[in-house]
Design brief:
The chain is an alpha/beta fold. It contains 26 helices and 31 strands.
């Protein structure tokens, strides 16, 4: 997407952008509109379906919808087109046509979020097809209604989590559905990457295996936003050969694009104004101009702060009426809270919403004029999804507000690379050992593992099953592998995080649950003394009871926030591969990571000044994952670097490489961890580790190992181009550093990395 001159037509946000000319406004571009490419409705569609489509005003199909219909009847298919291009109708057509012709057929729709399932259910009901009996089956479905859904519905909308833990372990109750299952729709397939995608790939293989046991071989229909490897992703997810449809025939309105960098406030330290405060100013201005806006940020805490700051700005301007028409939206809210926000968006009662990526996906939230993405969301694919939420019915504004993070500032120095950057390839590893072994146990509970299961679980499944026998998790009888122990294994597998459990957050004064947090995040997010934000309000954690899975919080009015300090250690478990880079040994393998939250800082909200450091006494957490590491020559470094300088240099080099790893792997910084040490007990040398931040690993650092030379040169470029004197958030400081960015040595890091690049 090349940067071009913007047409002179005045838009309501134009004065806002003009005030940023010269410093904040880094670049502008325009995505050109596109005319629709139409195909006639096929005569072969069932008459009832054709009548319903006519009633909905659908008299022709976009090219990709017609192509998907033709391809789906030939075999498994993935359709990948732009946001808001009508992918739902593309997969609905073959499914609804089948259900019309075969009244015993069933279909299963999988969505990554409950909101998407709710949205699709509304759209299906609106068609008023007499033969269609859609129903949602997820954690919010009342227990008294679940039996009726199983018995009556011919199109069930659910999510991978419910399929995994609620449907497949109880497949006997779902026998009729499985025996007549014709279609499996996997919407927003690009979301299924990393640890989540690796889990879901195993869930889909288990589903295929169960369906075959009941006598069916359902066909897969997948949709995806634009990614570099849609067919590879679809085939890794399903284990089947998949055809591609990518001829996008949907019309697109013009989109104006702007990159906004908060102003520099201290040239010596490289400090910039807060991106949250900048986003709040921009959002308040847009709301005042009646521009319906969605503002995205991946951090839950961050969206709460943007909401708080925006409301304050509007109240200061005497527009408290508008402050009430802005809402946050993120995971952790109760179902009723989510439904209320979604309804207010669709009805137009809300002028703006500040959301995590929970609203990045294809839910219809009405007509929006602008989409703000605050800090780089980790991938270009996610960024375009977010930007695609606005301007569906007219010219829209897509605004990127950079953070102080190294990758954000790298893009601000090279806006042409940012605007023209291609989408990434999705990474997942369904055979990641920890993930794969857990799902073999779940599959054995559903049906005994037997010869022939290599079709679903790969040629090495039996070796893995034998290992599970030795671990006491399976038992073998005459070549059949059965579960051992009480309970069902699926309940112990969390698809989206390292922990299957969540911690309830209870407000002590009102005595009610206000939200939840994954157990794996509890030590960092709701430790005693932590400041927790929810629905724009601040709370202080008084107690964390991990055994009882609850955190107690009370309303808080202080002017500080908290940041945890972690102690991290690594132990090399296995080496898979080694090679040399400029004479330095580089390895890829499995490491065990031990983390402990040992303290937390209190920082003032206004200027981020550290107020104090408070010790904590929390237990260690340990997991095994994939990692790359390289061992530097101790003697050569000792001659050139004093010990304190060496540790800071290694630490800064580690941060820089973690910052640029998302440029070559579809991940974000929060998916990666690292450790640098001047002496590691196993290597006996100065060593830098970069590891997948999820148990078992999902292939992120495998890509880093394969393209390590690029990782080095990008890190050098990142550090050398930054104008700060001694290291700042734009180059070597990290927002997730467990050591609170101490010690760091920018110049030493550049020297270490330059030696690696010398060969």
């Amino acid at each position: 997407m090349a940067s071009v001159a913007v047409a002179p037509k005045e838009m309501p946000w134009e004065p806002l952008l003009e005030r940023g000319e010269g410093e904040q406004l880094v670049a502008r571009a325009r995505a050109r509109p596109q005319e629709a490419l139409l195909e006639p409705l096929p005569e072969t569609l069932h008459p009832e379906l054709r009548e319903a489509l006519a009633g909905a005003g659908i008299e022709a199909l976009y090219a990709h919808q017609a192509d998907t219909l033709a391809s789906a009847y030939e075999g498994h298919t993935i359709v990948t087109t732009a946001t808001a291009s009508g992918k739902s109708l593309a997969f609905n057509l073959p499914v609804l046509d089948t259900l019309a012709h075969d009244r015993s057929a069933r279909a299963l729709y999988l969505y990554p979020t409950k909101a998407l399932a709710q949205d699709q259910a509304r759209a299906l009901h609106a068609l008023r097809l007499r033969y269609l009996r859609p129903a949602i089956y997820d954690g919010d479905t009342p227990y008294e209604e679940r039996k009726a859904v199983r018995a009556r519905s011919n199109l069930i909308l659910t999510n991978p989590d419910m399929l995994h833990v609620g449907i497949m372990p109880n497949h006997a109750k779902w026998g009729d559905m499985l025996a007549n299952l014709a279609w499996i729709v996997v919407d927003e397939a690009h979301v299924y990457r990393g640890v989540f995608g690796s889990h879901v790939a195993n869930v889909l293989r288990r589903l295929r295996r169960l369906a075959l046991a009941y006598g069916t071989e359902p066909r897969f229909l997948l949709t995806s936003a634009t990614i570099a490897n849609p067919v590879e992703l679809a085939e890794r997810l399903t284990g089947c050969e998949v055809a591609l449809v990518d001829r996008d025939g949907a019309p697109r309105a013009e989109r104006r694009i702007a990159m906004w960098n908060p102003p520099l406030v201290d040239e010596c330290t490289g400090a910039r104004a807060s991106p949250l405060a900048e986003a709040a100013d921009l959002l308040a201005d847009l709301v005042e101009r009646d521009v319906r806006t969605i503002c995205f940020l991946k951090s839950r805490r961050g969206i709460e702060l943007i909401l708080k700051f925006t409301r304050l700005r509007l109240e200061e301007r005497g527009r408290a009426d508008l402050a009430e028409r802005i809402s946050p939206y993120r995971a952790g809210y109760t179902p009723s809270q989510r439904r209320e926000i979604e309804g207010r968006l669709v009805d137009g009662d809300l002028l703006a919403v500040v959301a995590t990526d929970a609203l990045e996906l294809g839910i219809d939230i009405g007509s929006l004029d602008a989409a703000i993405c605050v800090t780089f969301p980790g991938t270009v694919a996610s960024l375009r999804q977010m930007w695609g939420r606005a301007g569906r019915r007219g010219t829209g504004l897509a605004l990127y507000v950079a953070g102080a993070d190294a990758l954000d500032q790298f893009f601000c120095r090279h806006p042409e690379e940012f605007l023209g950057r291609p989408v990434e390839s999705a990474i997942l590893d369904h055979e990641s050992e920890e993930i794969h072994l857990a799902h073999l146990c779940a599959a054995a509970y559903e049906l005994p593992l037997t010869p022939g299961d290599e079709e679903f679980f790969g040629e090495g499944w039996q070796r893995s099953a034998d290992r599970l026998v030795k671990l006491g998790q399976l038992r073998e009888r005459a070549g059949r592998y059965l579960p051992r122990g009480e309970g069902f294994p699926a309940a112990r597998i969390a698809l989206r995080s390292a922990s299957p459990d969540s911690v309830a957050i209870a407000e002590t004064e009102a005595g009610e649950i206000i939200g939840t947090v994954e157990t794996a995040r509890a030590h960092s997010a709701v430790h005693p003394g932590a400041v927790y934000l929810h629905m724009g309000r601040s709370y202080e954690v008084s107690e964390l009871d991990l055994g009882g899975r609850r955190a107690l919080v009370a309303p808080f009015s202080g002017d500080w926030y908290t940041q945890p300090k972690k102690e991290i250690d690594t132990f090399i478990e296995r080496i898979f591969e080694t090679r040399e880079v400029s004479g330095v040994p580089l390895s890829f393998g499995m490491v065990s990571v031990t983390e402990q939250v040992s303290a937390f800082q209190r920082k003032r909200v206004a200027d981020h000044e550290v107020l104090d450091l408070i010790a904590l006494d929390l237990p260690e957490e340990r997991f095994v994952t994939q990692a790359l590491w390289y061992e530097l020559p101790a003697q050569a470094l000792a001659e050139d670097f004093p010990l304190d300088v060496l540790q800071g240099s290694l630490h800064a080099a580690e941060h820089a490489q973690i910052a640029v790893l998302p440029l070559i792997a579809m991940c974000d910084r929060w998916d990666i961890g690292g450790l640098s040490t001047a002496f590691h007990s196993q290597t006996g040398r100065p060593t830098i580790f970069i590891y997948d931040g999820h148990p078992g690993g999902v292939g992120i650092t495998r890509v880093g190992f394969a393209r390590f030379e690029r990782l080095v040169t990008d890190a050098i470029r990142l550090i050398s181009e930054c104008p700060c004197r001694s290291g700042c958030p734009s180059c070597v400081q990290s927002p997730k550093c467990g050591n609170l960015n101490e010690p760091l040595n920018k110049n030493g890091a550049l020297e270490v990395l330059t030696r690696l690049d010398a060969g």
